[in-house]
# Entry
Amino acid sequence: MSINRKVQTLDEFTIQQLRDFPQATGELSNLLRNIGLAAKRVNVEVNKAGLVDILGDAGTVNVQGEKVKKLDVFANDQFIKVLQHGISCAGIASEELDDFVAFDDEKSIHSKYVCLFDPLDGSGNIDVNVSIGTIFGVYRRVTPVGTVVTKEDFLQPGSSQVAAGYVVYGSSTMLVYATRRGVNGFTLDPSIGEWTLSHPDIRCPEKGKIYSVNHGSFFEFDKGVQSYITACQQKSKEQGGPLRQRYVGSMVADVHRNLIKGGIFMYPGTSSKPDGKLRLLYECNPFAFIVGVAGGKATNGKIRTLDIVPSSLHERCPFFVGSKLMMEELETQLDQNG
Ligand code: AHG
Ligand code: MN
Ligand code: MN
# Structure
């Protein structure tokens, strides 16, 4: 059997990048490798979800007061274990935990990075075999290396991320990962258990045909959002006709599709929940970073998502993210109706 040498694995890719940057220590690459390992373990369980007794509620509620599925707990535990036993992470914060976790062993306190993640996004879709995901953001700690991390290491604006990414457990499993140098997508080859570079240098098209929003809440959105949505529906023939509405209910899947094809994803505030649903640190900031590096934009309707200075670990914010020109059209509608 001949080996296809066009295929580059995640490890080969990061080694290649390290060669281009001789001053790099490899710590970030190692952290990414650990995230890839945890994601592979989660992937195995996600694929078995219909077969084994892992479905259903774990019987607890998370810090947002939502029901936790067993797979959320499993994914959360996997990411913590793998990162704690690695040598490149000084602590984590997770959507599933009330507080951050500082890794206080001798090797972890000498790590430069902290990692924030939503271990399983779209978990309401597990029971019905629809794509779900993992989202993560990586920051350089602000406290001195050699000490135990504190909350201020986690409460940094998204613009301080050094890397961010997501895994989509879909018809295939993909890891998409961004640094300031670019966004690259790796598909898991299940036959060899390797992440292989399938989507090099992802760029988000300047505009697309898709808008993604929960239409059920339309009458709870403010005027600006409503008029943007109406404008999407009323595009003339010359403008390419009405846009397509696509909303999976797993943000990872929705934003992934829009990143590749061009589009806009919105989770606005509503009259009953002015800050919306999504969490700034675990969901919005990583996507704002990834889409931004790929050429798109992200805001809370007022300022750039990446410029929001967080005040608590679990704060939520309205979120608009996507193709540059579509985001600019949205911003115009919000200004005119503000
Ligand atoms: P999680 O499963 O981590 O709680 O996140 C689900 C999120 C997001 O993925 C999705 O876009 C959104 O919830 C869907 O919410 P609505 O059903 O309110 O539209
Ligand atoms: Mn989520
Ligand atoms: Mn989640």
